[in-house]
Here is the input.
Amino acid sequence: MCYLGRSILELTQKRLETDILIVGGGITGLSTAIYIAEKRPDLEIKVLTKAQKEESNTRYAQGGIAAVWDFKEDSYGKHVADTLDAGAGLCNEDVVRFVVEEGPERVREIIEWGTRFDKTEEGAYRLGVEGGHSESRILHFKDLSGWEIQRALNEKAATFGNIEVLEHYFALDLITQHHLGYNVTRVTPAIQCYGIYALDLVNLDVEKLLAKVTVMATGGGGQIYRSTTNPVIATGDGMAMMYRAKGRIANMEFVQFHPTSLYRPDGENPAFLISEAVRGSGGILKSQEGVEFMDQYDERKSLAPRDIVARAIDNEMKKRGAECMFLDCTHLDKQGFMDHFPTIYDKCQSVGIDPMKDMIPVVPACHYFCGGVDVDVHGRTSIERLYAGGECTSSGLHGANRLASNSLLEGLVYGYRIARHLVGEVDKYEIRQGIPDWDAQGTTKPKEMVLITQSLKELKEIMSYYVGIVRSNVRLKRAMDRLWLLYRETEDVYHSSTLSPQLCELRNLITIGYLVTRSASMRHESRGLHFTTDFPEKLPFIENTYL
Here is the structure.
């Protein structure tokens, strides 16, 4: 008999100690595991994912990966300048430079590992352009780039005998000195991570997974909003665990809304993404009357950075009392569109839209977190023995707004950097013994699941109405008041109930909602993705917001 791909024998013989524990199986987690396995075949590596190994935020990336490829037309300097411009003065320029300069080599490596990108008839890579980019530098696989990269990484990881992927494990909390009876606060020096507690979703037992070193690559938290392009697993688990463990979190106010998700009156979750690359290929944003409007907001029109385009669409919708704006692709070559965007074309057709005859209705949707766990250039966090990379982090690459298709690039570069640093440090540590088992005494099954589902609905409404694309002091205060009530109610349920993934995700999402709202209330200016009507101007410089 098997349970979600694992036999009874495997369940009873699980080894819950490892050299390296990686939480998250997307591009950052898997590339880190692969790089470590290549450098140190003697180390045991476990990769945890709360769904099946094919499911991650990476899988849903449509556009592609940005890297300087054609040095005749492009340069590192141009890519750096584009990234800094999009980041609205809050990027760490040193980080931007090494990510841009190391990126092409990392991309060549995943190509060697089996990743396919579209080519021209002459055999050269077909490079796309997206909003905010001054040159064509996006390598892509049709409109399924993330899916293709995820496939190749899974297959490459499977070739290493020292990498084990554990599916259907839900990370609950980081294990630190707190679990040994010490009083750990945000000013406690030398907090250490010894592993995690995780909920086995097969049998709903809580296990302790101990490691010499832990890497967090848990992705974003887009499910705090009613409309998001993120998969349902994007519940901010890593960032919430880090905050509870008293680690440093930075710049959570910068939440990127993708300008163009497919508008559906039924509120489809996740919202279907209409890739930035469609505008890069000539798609034009228009009103229902067929009138262009982006020229009123930015000289780059429909190819302006995402923060500008998302606010423009939001403003036009509010001015007109409209539920959506439109993306006009009717002037584009049909065969070229179908070849480059087959998934988008099929999706539109399935809901009665012919992109070659009808304008595509679009609305902004939560897409990407530019803040998160504060990390240095090696992916080290404020907690010893804990690294982090990818969307769950604030690395300094994105600043106040991410440049399109830099996310997959960041994941690869930081995967390599984490691995390179980690292999020189791991031998300093031993697996900590004496960690107590999870204590579930006194808990009972929740009597009404409707309390959890209704609280999640309330959270999404609070964040969407009060902490969305445009904010104000009044809205943020109202959000904080309501989030506090939700937090108290959910904590009462959490401490009295046996655990379920729904309850744990709700708890994490409320924490993420608080972090975004609190950080937004601390930034008294409008910069990048954070726009507030009380402070509409960008000030000369406001430093990072830390929580």
